[in-house]
């Protein structure tokens, strides 16, 4: 069994083992196993959404065919408005997350000793480790009419009437997005700041550069790939996580994820696949633009 | 202007950091607080009670769900973490890094509902075509391969958890020096022994935290599990269906508080364990280094 394989062309082997044993050959192929798995069960299903989206809808399932009915259903109805609206609010959430979260990443990299940095970042894993749905659901009692925020503000005497815009509205969805996704901008910012050496801060001090210019001209270009990855993550999840508008949103707060799950509940599978295909196209375009601009593999380069 | 010139600014930044963490945790703490209230949410009086927790543990449905969840978590961990390890080794060795990085990190960017529904339709179609193929060949052995079941849920969750394990393992691998493997190979060890005896002990913390990550992610996951599961329920799906259908009962507050307690205890003990371990290791290293130094 050990001698059936022949030496591949163009590959040099040590002199004492002229032929690869079957276990060595297997050992080389086993490293491709995760990639094969991901292609089979991730890349192919994602690409297949495009194919399934043009199938014809039947009563409970779908049958092969070619129709653009589900795209028509998406683009010429209130769904498109809702989708564009959710894009707008998702962008707002990205901006808020960046403003609140990225300074933390800079601070951790700049002012905390090297050995302690990872532990400080671990603090942000703590809320993220509690189920996202429980966290989002727990926002209801916090933001409700008689919830934590309103009672606290009323007890402090800042407001007379309880605020009702906090929940079951677009504001509620944005609050939920910021609360769920803020840790991610801290993580990606922390990884991105690896590209900014610590002496940069000293050089800037020596050259008399103010914090604002230092941020715009030095930190931002160097950390751009990580910031971009984090922002895309938050933007796409803001579009795609159905539970946020489902639990916190009011009338009109519908995003792509909710459209897809509602289509599945209504047994309109082609529509769900069309929404998925549109989301995947959005994501791929964003990632492609990002890769063109900043070379996204740079994010992982400090690790290798 | 450095931080030592103005210690108050430094403290202010620390305060801001902790405030953000605390704000993110507020809903969780609030749920824990409510879960001990005998009168439920929104009541004027607060009476401390364990009653809701007792009710959770006497519920047969929930205990069954807990068993399924644990089985799912263990299966996914056993498959996903070694695969992430293989992928990380492959990533280190290969020259064309774009393709593996794209494949392994893209699932992070795909929202749960989109991934879940795409996989759901894919599996259903795959199942139908396998049944058709079986009919043509006159066998029925393909019929239940990709019917929605434990297997499909496991596949969906592996795709979800692999990126996290991959990153965690890659971070710890960054500290390993590949010259050690070369030295081991030069001494006559084969590839597996060089990995198992030299490299693995050094990346073990990363592998263990990848396992912990995976277990907690599977435990908390709702959307993908509920779309892809067959005829069983996990802890979270029971909880969410209760929440969405009957509204929040005091019992569901107790359940979510309990899940949070377990997750926080797990993460807390991992952090403590790594801290203590790092401390012991550095003490051992110092003790070894001392005679040489003097």
What is the CA-CA span between the terminal residues of chain A?
37 Å
Residues in β-strands, percent of chain B: under 5%
Number of helices of chain B: 11
Query: What top-tier CATH class of chain A fits best?
Result: Mainly Alpha
Give the class of chain B from helix and strand content and strand pairing: mainly alpha
Question: Whole-number average pLDDT of chain B?
Answer: 82
Indicate the percent of residues in helices of chain B: over 70%
Overall shape of chain B: it is: flat
Low-confidence parts of chain B:
none
The CATH class designation of chain B is Mainly Alpha
Q: Main beta sheet of chain A: strand number and arrangement?
A: 2 strands, antiparallel
The rough form of chain A would be described as globular
Strand order of the largest sheet of chain A: 1-2
Total beta strands of chain A: 2
SS element count, helices of chain A: 13
* Helix-strand topology string of chain A: HHEEHHHHHHHHHHH
Brief descriptors of the model:
heterodimer, A: 304 residues, mainly alpha, MetI-like fold, two-stranded antiparallel sheet, 13 helices, 2 strands, globular, disordered N terminus, B: 294 residues, 11 helices, flat
